[in-house]
């Protein structure tokens, strides 16, 4: 992976203290970008950020907090990368109103603030959860795949996409939605420390070292090769570079007078079942992953694998599909491996 060819100058990052956010902030700083963060710190960790990075503690649903973060630049930033949001599919099934409020309403507040401040580009962290499980004739899903979210989480991300698409129709900013598949690995010294943790690889790594109870495998008789969910795992380094390149592209498009809305699927293009992941974790760590079988969770789609061809073409980015590397990087960031 090479560095972005078009480094950004000033960027507001919402959700800056989360796993993706803190890694992205460091990535942008390395490229010489001025960064301001906005985070409620309800699920993020301020200590994940470099101490010199200005951070506004506030909720993206609060217009005053978003305005305060934008004003810290002195003059409008080129772009806002909007990562803040709730991400747990299961939680969204029991708290759908909360997910709509944070993910959909929060995106509207951020978008309105960017339009008012004169921000040129807005990049949204969307999700493969906006896609439906019924995709006739498709094994890897590109941007033309059928949109049919099966959880309130997915529906809230689709509403967020619609919001930034409408904003681009005003001609005042360009926007891009990056539909992330399963972000994994670690970089820049930032570990996955979600509370509660929901991502399979850190859960499996920590279970193998006895830090967590046996891993619960949700669904073992699904319509997949081994009966467990199949997902596309993409390294965090490729994800943050995709954000940098897509945002640079949107800024350039707006500068040329071409206000656009774009969707890009960010994945490796390789599917791994839950059983595949657990075998890889055991091989990399040299110890088994204790596990217990459970019924499938509501809202979980059996198979979600990206077709990243358009991302490769548009961003000139070739993701690294090495699952063993992602596991090792995760374990090292958690201080469980040398």
Q: Can you describe what's shown?
A:
The protein is α/β, with parallel strands linked by helices and 338 residues long. The protein has 2 domains: 10-181 and 234-266, NAD(P)-binding Rossmann-like Domain (Rossmann fold); 200-231 and 269-333, Alpha-Beta Complex (UDP-galactose 4-epimerase, domain 1). It is 37% helix and 18% strand. It has 10 helices and 13 strands. The protein has helices spanning 19-30, 63-71, 89-94, 96-117, 152-168, 200-208, 236-255, 274-285, 309-315, 323-333; strands at 10-14, 34-39, 55-57, 79-82, 121-127, 174-180, 182-184, 215-218, 230-235, 261-266, 271-273, 291-294, 303-304. The protein has a 7-stranded parallel beta sheet, sandwiched between helices. Helix 6 crosses helix 8 (274-285) and helix 6 (200-208) crosses helix 10 (323-333). It is globular. The two termini are 24 Å apart. 52% of the residues are buried. The mean pLDDT is 95.
- Terminal-residue CA separation: 24 Å
What do we call the CATH topology of the largest domain?
Answer: Rossmann fold
Low-confidence stretches: none
- By CATH, the architecture of the largest domain is named 3-Layer(aba) Sandwich
E-strand count: 13
Task: Tell me the β content.
Answer: 15-25%
Contiguous helical run count: 10
Query: Helix/strand-derived class?
Result: alpha/beta
- In CATH terms, the superfamily of the largest domain is NAD(P)-binding Rossmann-like Domain
Sheet with the most strands?
Answer: 7 strands, parallel
Output the CATH class name of the largest domain.
Answer: Alpha Beta
Mean pLDDT: 95
How much helical structure, as a percent, in the residues?
Answer: 25-40%
Cα radius of gyration in angstroms: 19 Å
- Give the strand order of the largest sheet, numbering strands 1, 2, ... along the chain: 3-2-1-4-5-6-10
Shape: globular
Query: What are the secondary-structure elements, in order, as H or E?
Result: EHEEHEHHEHEEHEEHEEHEEHH
How many domains make up the 3D coordinates?
A: 2
């Amino acid at each position: 992976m090479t560095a972005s060819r078009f480094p950004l100058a000033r960027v507001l990052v919402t959700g800056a203290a989360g796993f993706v956010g803190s890694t992205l902030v460091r990535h942008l700083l390395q490229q010489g970008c001025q960064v301001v963060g906005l985070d409620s710190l309800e699920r993020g960790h301020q200590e994940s950020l470099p101490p010199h990075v200005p951070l506004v503690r506030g909720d993206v649903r609060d217009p005053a907090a978003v305005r305060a973060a934008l004003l810290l630049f002195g003059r409008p930033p080129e772009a806002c990368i909007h990562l803040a949001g709730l991400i747990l599919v299961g939680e969204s099934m029991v708290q759908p109103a909360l997910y709509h409020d944070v993910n959909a309403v929060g995106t509207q507040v951020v978008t309105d603030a960017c339009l008012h401040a004169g921000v040129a580009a807005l990049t949204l962290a969307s999700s493969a959860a906006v896609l439906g499980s019924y995709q006739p004739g498709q094994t890897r899903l590109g941007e033309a795949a059928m949109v049919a979210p099966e959880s309130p989480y997915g529906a809230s991300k689709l509403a967020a996409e619609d919001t930034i698409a409408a904003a681009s129709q005003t001609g005042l900013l360009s926007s891009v939605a990056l539909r992330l598949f399963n972000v994994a690995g670690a970089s820049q010294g930032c570990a996955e420390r979600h509370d509660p943790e929901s991502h399979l690889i850190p859960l499996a790594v920590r279970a193998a070292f006895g830090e967590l109870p046996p891993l619960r495998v949700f669904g073992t008789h699904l319509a997949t090769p081994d009966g467990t969910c199949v997902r596309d795992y993409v390294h965090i380094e490729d994800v943050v570079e995709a954000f940098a390149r897509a945002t640079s592209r949107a800024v350039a498009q707006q500068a040329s007078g071409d206000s656009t809305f774009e969707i890009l699927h960010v994945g490796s293009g390789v599917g791994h079942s839950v059983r595949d992941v657990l075998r890889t974790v055991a091989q990399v760590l040299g110890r088994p992953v204790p596990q217990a079988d459970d019924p499938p969770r509501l809202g979980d789609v059996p198979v979600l694998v990206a077709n990243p061809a358009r991302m490769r073409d548009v961003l000139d980015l070739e993701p690294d599909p090495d699952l063993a590397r992602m596991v090792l990087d995760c374990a090292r960031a958690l201080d469980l491996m040398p």
